[in-house]
Amino acid sequence: MSEKYSEKSGGEAMEWKITDDRPIWMQLSEQLAAQIAAGAYRPGERLPSVRECAAQAGVNPNTMQRAMADLESQGLVITNRTAGRCVTQDMEKIKKLRSGQAREQAVRFLEQMGTLGYTKEEIRQVLEEALESMTEEGEL
Residues 32, 69: contact at Cβ < 8 Å? Predict the structure, then answer.
Protein backbone atom coordinates (compact mmCIF):
# COMPACT_ATOMS: atom_id res chain seq x y z
CA MET A 1 0.00 0.00 0.00
CA SER A 2 1.30 3.44 -0.78
CA GLU A 3 0.36 6.60 1.06
CA LYS A 4 0.71 10.10 -0.32
CA TYR A 5 -0.16 13.38 1.32
CA SER A 6 -1.38 16.49 -0.41
CA GLU A 7 -2.40 19.94 0.69
CA LYS A 8 -6.15 20.47 0.72
CA SER A 9 -7.51 24.00 0.65
CA GLY A 10 -7.04 25.46 4.10
CA GLY A 11 -3.62 23.84 4.50
CA GLU A 12 -4.86 20.48 5.76
CA ALA A 13 -3.07 17.41 4.41
CA MET A 14 -5.15 14.91 2.48
CA GLU A 15 -3.84 11.38 2.74
CA TRP A 16 -4.14 9.19 -0.34
CA LYS A 17 -4.04 5.45 0.34
CA ILE A 18 -3.64 3.28 -2.74
CA THR A 19 -3.65 -0.51 -2.51
CA ASP A 20 -3.30 -3.25 -5.10
CA ASP A 21 -6.59 -5.00 -4.31
CA ARG A 22 -8.98 -2.77 -6.32
CA PRO A 23 -8.82 -0.42 -9.30
CA ILE A 24 -7.01 2.80 -8.42
CA TRP A 25 -9.73 5.07 -9.88
CA MET A 26 -12.28 3.40 -7.59
CA GLN A 27 -10.11 3.98 -4.52
CA LEU A 28 -9.57 7.63 -5.48
CA SER A 29 -13.30 8.12 -6.00
CA GLU A 30 -14.08 6.55 -2.62
CA GLN A 31 -11.47 8.67 -0.86
CA LEU A 32 -12.73 11.89 -2.41
CA ALA A 33 -16.32 10.89 -1.55
CA ALA A 34 -15.21 10.27 2.05
CA GLN A 35 -13.68 13.77 2.12
CA ILE A 36 -16.96 15.23 0.85
CA ALA A 37 -18.96 13.25 3.43
CA ALA A 38 -16.64 14.41 6.22
CA GLY A 39 -17.06 18.04 5.20
CA ALA A 40 -13.45 18.56 4.09
CA TYR A 41 -14.96 19.87 0.86
CA ARG A 42 -18.06 21.96 1.52
CA PRO A 43 -21.16 22.02 -0.69
CA GLY A 44 -20.47 24.21 -3.71
CA GLU A 45 -16.72 24.29 -3.04
CA ARG A 46 -14.45 24.04 -6.06
CA LEU A 47 -12.31 20.90 -6.15
CA PRO A 48 -8.66 20.99 -7.22
CA SER A 49 -8.13 20.29 -10.93
CA VAL A 50 -7.75 16.74 -12.20
CA ARG A 51 -4.07 17.37 -12.93
CA GLU A 52 -3.47 18.82 -9.48
CA CYS A 53 -5.22 15.93 -7.72
CA ALA A 54 -3.41 13.39 -9.90
CA ALA A 55 -0.03 14.94 -9.11
CA GLN A 56 -0.80 15.00 -5.39
CA ALA A 57 -1.93 11.36 -5.39
CA GLY A 58 0.92 10.26 -7.65
CA VAL A 59 -1.36 8.80 -10.31
CA ASN A 60 -1.95 9.31 -14.02
CA PRO A 61 -4.36 12.20 -14.79
CA ASN A 62 -6.56 9.79 -16.79
CA THR A 63 -7.00 7.69 -13.65
CA MET A 64 -8.02 10.73 -11.62
CA GLN A 65 -10.33 11.83 -14.45
CA ARG A 66 -12.11 8.48 -14.21
CA ALA A 67 -12.48 8.92 -10.43
CA MET A 68 -13.94 12.41 -10.91
CA ALA A 69 -16.30 11.12 -13.60
CA ASP A 70 -17.48 8.46 -11.15
CA LEU A 71 -18.22 11.12 -8.53
CA GLU A 72 -20.05 13.10 -11.17
CA SER A 73 -22.16 10.07 -12.14
CA GLN A 74 -23.11 9.71 -8.45
CA GLY A 75 -24.20 13.34 -8.40
CA LEU A 76 -21.61 14.30 -5.77
CA VAL A 77 -19.64 16.54 -8.11
CA ILE A 78 -20.91 19.01 -10.69
CA THR A 79 -18.85 20.26 -13.63
CA ASN A 80 -19.13 23.94 -14.52
CA ARG A 81 -17.40 24.99 -17.73
CA THR A 82 -15.92 28.12 -16.23
CA ALA A 83 -15.48 27.08 -12.60
CA GLY A 84 -14.24 23.51 -12.95
CA ARG A 85 -15.63 20.80 -10.71
CA CYS A 86 -17.53 21.67 -7.54
CA VAL A 87 -19.11 19.63 -4.78
CA THR A 88 -22.87 19.31 -5.15
CA GLN A 89 -25.03 21.66 -3.13
CA ASP A 90 -27.63 18.90 -2.71
CA MET A 91 -27.43 18.38 1.07
CA GLU A 92 -29.75 15.37 0.89
CA LYS A 93 -27.30 13.60 -1.41
CA ILE A 94 -24.40 14.40 0.93
CA LYS A 95 -26.36 13.21 3.99
CA LYS A 96 -27.21 9.98 2.17
CA LEU A 97 -23.53 9.48 1.28
CA ARG A 98 -22.47 10.10 4.87
CA SER A 99 -25.02 7.73 6.40
CA GLY A 100 -24.19 5.06 3.81
CA GLN A 101 -20.50 5.27 4.66
CA ALA A 102 -21.24 5.12 8.39
CA ARG A 103 -23.39 2.04 7.86
CA GLU A 104 -20.65 0.32 5.83
CA GLN A 105 -18.15 0.96 8.63
CA ALA A 106 -20.60 -0.32 11.25
CA VAL A 107 -21.30 -3.49 9.28
CA ARG A 108 -17.56 -4.19 8.88
CA PHE A 109 -17.02 -3.66 12.60
CA LEU A 110 -19.92 -5.94 13.53
CA GLU A 111 -18.75 -8.65 11.14
CA GLN A 112 -15.27 -8.54 12.70
CA MET A 113 -16.68 -8.66 16.22
CA GLY A 114 -18.88 -11.62 15.22
CA THR A 115 -15.82 -13.39 13.84
CA LEU A 116 -14.15 -12.87 17.24
CA GLY A 117 -17.19 -14.47 18.91
CA TYR A 118 -18.62 -11.38 20.59
CA THR A 119 -22.30 -11.34 21.53
CA LYS A 120 -24.57 -8.34 20.95
CA GLU A 121 -24.27 -7.39 24.61
CA GLU A 122 -20.47 -7.64 24.58
CA ILE A 123 -20.33 -5.51 21.44
CA ARG A 124 -22.55 -2.87 23.09
CA GLN A 125 -20.28 -2.84 26.14
CA VAL A 126 -17.12 -2.46 24.03
CA LEU A 127 -18.71 0.40 22.09
CA GLU A 128 -19.96 2.17 25.23
CA GLU A 129 -16.53 1.90 26.88
CA ALA A 130 -14.75 3.17 23.76
CA LEU A 131 -17.23 6.03 23.36
CA GLU A 132 -16.85 7.05 26.99
CA SER A 133 -13.06 6.86 26.82
CA MET A 134 -12.84 8.85 23.59
CA THR A 135 -15.27 11.46 24.91
CA GLU A 136 -13.25 11.90 28.11
CA GLU A 137 -10.05 12.27 26.11
CA GLY A 138 -11.66 14.88 23.86
CA GLU A 139 -11.34 12.75 20.73
CA LEU A 140 -15.06 13.05 19.98
Answer: no
Stated as kind and residue range, the H or E segment containing 101 is: helix 91-115
Q: How far apart are CA 98 and CA 25, in angstroms?
A: 20
Q: How far apart are CA 45 and CA 9, in angstroms?
A: 10
pLDDT on residue 6: 46
Angstrom distance (rounded) from CA 116 to CA 99: 26
User: What is the phi-psi region of residue 42: left when phi exceeds 0, alpha when psi lies from -120 to 50, beta otherwise?
Assistant: beta
The Cα-based distances of 45 to 27, 87, 110 in angstroms read 21, 6, 35
pLDDT in tens, 42-74: 999 999 999 999 999 999 999 999 999 999 999
pLDDT at 67: 98
State the pTM of this model: 0.76
CB atoms within 10 A of CB 28: 24
